[in-house]
Amino acid sequence: MMPVSRQPVKPAMEISAFSYQKFVRFTLEQTQSRIDLIPLPLQEKYKCMKAVDQKTMLQTLSFQAPKIRMLRSLTIEGGQSMQVLDFAVFPEPEFDLPIFCANFFTAASMNIIVLDLNPLHDVTVQREYREKYYKSLMPLGQKYVELLPWGDKITSESLRFFSPIVIWTKFTSSQYKHDVLYSAFVDYFKAWLELMDHAVAETNASQILRNQEAQHKYLTWRAEKQDPGHPILTRLIGDALAKDLVRNFLFNGVATLGSKSFLDYFPEYRCEDGTINKRRSMIGKSFETRPWDASGEYIGNEL
To answer: What's the predicted TM-score (pTM) here?
Structure first.
C-alpha cells in the first residue's frame, strides 16, 4: 500500500465546482450559534488526508458539546468523478435524541442519498418513541416525498434504523436536485437542533443504559454492515487505515459504549464456523416503496 499523505491541502472548494463543504459549514454555523463546540482529539488524528492516487482529498471534523457526544463529518473531494459527505451527530446517552445522519455519494452520473434523523429506538414497534419525536416532523418529511422519491428496495433489517421521515433516494446529477438536497439537509438539521434544544436529560440510570446500548447497537450495525463507503475508503487509503477510520472515527463508540459484539446483537448473521456472514442484508421483508404513510404509520407492504 502506498503511504497516505497527511500534509495540508488546498481548501476543498478549490478542487471542484460542486462540493459538500457548504453543507458542513452550515451545520457548524447553526450549531455554534446555539452551543459551544469543542474540537475532539480525533480531529487532529484524521484532519486531512490525500488518497493513494495523490488527487482525492479526505477531510474530517469532529466536535463535542452539551448534549452531543460527537458531531463529525467526512468529506471526500475527488473532482468531477466523486464527491462524498458522511455527516452524523450522536447524542450523549442521557438523551434519547435521534441520531442525525447524512450519507451522500455523488458521481459523474449518479447520486445516492440517505438523510434521516435515525431513531435511537425502533419506531416500527415502539410507538411512544415515534410519537415523541416524529409525529410533529411528518409534514417536513412529506415536503420532500415527491421531490426526492424512494430510491430502491431495502430490507426490514435495515429499516429498523430508519425513521418515517427518512430520505432514501437516487438521482442523476443536476443542479436542481442538488439545490433540493441542500434545502432538505438544512430543514432536517434545523429540525434536529430544535429537538436538541428541548431535550431534557434522563435521570433514570436504567434508561440511560438503555439509550447507551441502543446507540452502541446502531454503531455496531453501521460499522459492520451498512456503510457503503467501506470499499471506497479501502480503495482510497488502504485497508488498515480505512478500518481505523470507520471504527474509531465514523462510528466512534463501538469500542467504548458497550461490550457486546455484532453477533451478540445480530445472532442471525453467525456462520457455522462462528464468523460473520458478510452479506449486507439477508433477512426480512423488502420494500421498493416508502413503508410509512403520511402520518408516520408503518404500512410495510411486502414484496
So the answer is: 0.90
